[in-house]
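ok so i was messing around last nite and threw this chain in just to see what happens. nothing serious, just curious
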Amino acid sequence: MPTRAGPWRAAVPLTMGLAGLLFVASAVNSDGADLRPSGADLQTLVSDRARTVDDLVERVDDVQVDVDRLGAAVDDDAVRDLRRQVAALEGVAGLTPVSGPGLVVTLDDAPADRLPDRVDDNTLVVHQQDIQAFVNALWRGGAVAVSLQGQRLVSTTAVKCVGNTVVIEQVPYAPPYVIEAVGDEAALLRALDGSPGVSLFRDDARTYGLELQVDRSERVDVAPYKGRPALDHAQAAQ
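result:
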C-alpha cells in the first residue's frame, strides 16, 4: 500500500540545505580560523586583545621613529614655527613627564578571608566608578598630572571595568589600583574630603574591609602619556 507523504518529508531536505548554508557561511567568516577560540572566557579575550594592542603599539612606535627622522630632515621657517607650537602644547596635553609633591592613593578589594555573609559581591570589589571618583576629585583639587597603574591619564583616557579588572588604553590591570597625583597636597586632600563618591567608598572600606590608603609624598613621578590621543572635537582652553 503506498504511504502518505507527511510534512517531514519536505522539511528534511530544507533543513539540510539550511545547515549546509550555515556551514559555508561560518567557513567564509572564519577564513580558516576557529570562530570560538579555546578558553574564550572574558578574561582570556581581554588578555589576548591587550597583547594585540601591545604589538600594534610597538609597530606604531617603530613607524614614528621613521617619521621623526624624516621630519627632522625638513628645515624651513614654517616647519620650525610649527615645531615651536607643538612643543608649547606638549605639557598641557600630558606628553611630558611631571614630578613634584603630591598624593598616592591605593584602592583594593576586600580580603577573601574577611568577606561578610549576605553581602552582594559587587560591594566588596573596586569598581570603575570608584576609581573615577578619586581621579575626578584629584583633578578638581588642582592636580597637575594624574596616573593610574603608572599610566598617564589625559582628557581622552577611558577607564573601563571588564570582569574583575580595569582596562586602560586597551590594557587590563588587576587590583590593587594605585593612583598618583602631582599637586598641592593640602588642596588634593580637601578635594578628596569633599567628594561624595570618595565618601561612599570610605564608608564601604570601613564597613566591608576594602582597602583605602592615601599617602602624602614629597616626590611623585608621573610619566608622559604613551598613547595616541584622537579628538573629534576640541575647544581651545581660555
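not much to say yet. The chain has six helices and eight strands.
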